[in-house]
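Task 17 of the worksheet. Students: predict the tertiary structure of the chain below and write it out as structure tokens. Keep your answer in the requested format; marks are given for formatting as well as content.
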Amino acid sequence: MPVFEGLFPPGHDKEIQTLLFQLAQWHALAKLRLHTDHSLDLLDKATRLLGDQLCNFQQFTCTAFKTMELLLETAARQRQQECNLDTSTSTICSAQPKSFNLATYKFHALGDYVRNIHLFGMTDSYTTQLVSSLRIHDYHLSTQMIMT
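Model answer:
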């Protein structure tokens, strides 16, 4: 990906280029509108490769760089602390270190895509709108029955 090429030191640049490619490949496979067993097998393999590459990124690249929270995050944390403390005391907050976190739901959920597509089809082919409208309708019916 020429746009990102050379932004990082040579060893890390290759890791990041590989990660970006695998993210793009996974996204392209996950967003297909029509899947076959073969495309789902490809998505499953791409998910495994992406997971491995994310672990490599966390262990190799993330540990090599010192990253800090953004100025907006620091300011928001300082405002929050001021609200929690007495307003007469002022504290100066410095930027806190931030690290890449694989232990979040978005990464955990990647492994469920293939199974969910097998069970329900693509995520854009169904909606919860019908269920939520039925719940509201049932709620109104039950309140009318209680009132009568």
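Marker's comment: Residues 17 and 67 are 19 Å apart (CA to CA). Residues 37-61 form the longest helix (25 residues).
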